[in-house]
Amino acid sequence: MEEAAAGPEPEPEPTEGPAGLGEPSPGAPGESPGPEVLDGPGEPAEPRPEEPPEPCKPEEPGLEEPEPCEPEEPGPEQQQPGPCGPEGPEEPGSREPEPCGPEEPGPEKPEPCELEGPEEPGPGEPEEPGPEEPGPGEPEGPEEPSEPSDPGPSAAAAAAGGAGEAEAGGPAGEAREAAEEGEEERRERAALLEQHGGLAAERERLRRAGARLQLRLGELLRLRRGERRPRAEPGAGGPELYAQRLLRLRELREERERAAAACRERVAARRRDGEERQARARAEWAAFQARKKEAAVSSLGRRLGGREAAAAAVARIQAGEGDKERQARVENIKLKHEIQNLETILKAQGELVEGQRFLDFEHMKKENQKHSKKIDDLSDEILKLKKKVSNTVHVLSQFREKLQFVEAENQGRKAELMDIESVLSQKRDVLTKTKQARDRLRRNNLKLQQKCGLLGNEALLRDFEEKVDAAELLSQRLETLKRHHAALILTCRGIQKKIKEANSSFLAEDD
User: Rounded to the nearest 10 degrees, what angle do helices 307-349 and 354-452 cross at?
Assistant: First the structure.
């Protein structure tokens, strides 16, 4: 019923969750957790006990809880909803923590401080992760101990032999584990921030490209429907309109730059303010713990016989106080969530009969059983994942052994390769010498072929013989044609002579 109504309950032990924003590192055995355990950025406000608290902002700078949600500038790592940090009491135990969320959450809203994801920034609003949000998966305000009350010397002496002695050896190991987990959490958070920046830039680029493509698509659709834009007549205010558009574009760009600069200034101012408040809170808490320890050591030194024994006793007392305060805070938040949920149910249902209340109780019991089943399923999944991790480690060890074997085999193959390369170089030298001898023989053969002429070449000899025979035949034919030509010339001369004689006789007869 408490799990269904109040949401995820933080574990009181500091070693269960990562030592990040919302979990105090145990530190030394003689010091109780203070504000110096805050690894992530927080934004505690100035103490104003007479004013109502703002959402998600504690009013005491000396508290240990960071603000898990900032509704103005959500960052990319703001993914885990939960109750916000409680108000800082001026006196320990005088005021109860108040979660930031709706005033009347129903049973179906167990997370009163759930925020929406980061909104898509406009072209003039740079998206920067707010420094006020804790990273994903980090425990929040319920696991932080409040400022411990100042025990008097008598109370310190009475509690010296109590619960502090049982926890003297544990904080050192827990501190190392918490420090390692916190370092891993910070590295993961830095990687996520870098990845978020790259994705934001890519989203902005794709958004602009999509806008351009949509404009182009609209023009193409208008052209397909025949809705062509009327062409502007030449000289009809074209240059003036172009100048106006350029001026408007320049004004919009300047406005965007101003808005981006103002946003960056606001983010930087908030970051500086948060860092200053954190530093002031850490200093005040350290001074308070030092004064408290000094007073306790001075009062117990005479009773226990030395300052070292008194310091050890005070350290055990402070460690026990830190654990008790953490448990008391968790129990207080659980009770407050339960009271708030019960009040909401009473306001919503009003005056109901006993039967209706019994039905509501049964309904809540069923929901609690469902949540218990879900928890069991998650536990089974965790066991499966652990088995899978062990199998993966085993396979990885096998791969490493195989890698070592392959590396040794590669070394042997490299030695063989060196031997083969040496033999290859020798054979290569022999091959070059053989090629040189072949070239010399080829040149000598060519020279001998040039000297021998037609000897040994049957085809050339046969062709030469055929050409000689053809030349003789052609010469004989030429002689025959010459004789025939001479005979024809003699015949022509005789005929010409006869023609001349006939012409002369004909002329003589005419005379």
Answer: 110
